[in-house]
Amino acid sequence: MPRFLxxxxxxxxxxxxxxxxxxxxxxxxxxxxxxxxxAWEQRNAAFILDRGGMVGKTTRVTKDGVAEGVNPFCGYLIxxxxxxxxxxxxxxxxxxxxxxxxxxxxxxxxVT
Length: 112
Hints:
The chain is an alpha+beta fold. It has four helices and six strands; from the N terminus they run βααββββααβ.
């Protein structure tokens, strides 16, 4: 069955806005979102090959050297599905963007 990289995205300004909330409000969002995320993973466990994880700041390496980088990636996982459309449907209503300030989930097939 085809494998897909699912990348959680978040606009840096949305993360900054969330982090600027009082800790009690952040904790309230976590109290709602984390159980929903766990439930999502349990429902879709048969399709998840690698739970991946959330990621931090980017360091970019180019022909010009090493420097700080900026992108919307905040996490990833690897799923298995019949098609890209089927993989995408796994993430409909995901708490990453329905509870947390996530922007979306990008689905990309592995081609090699």
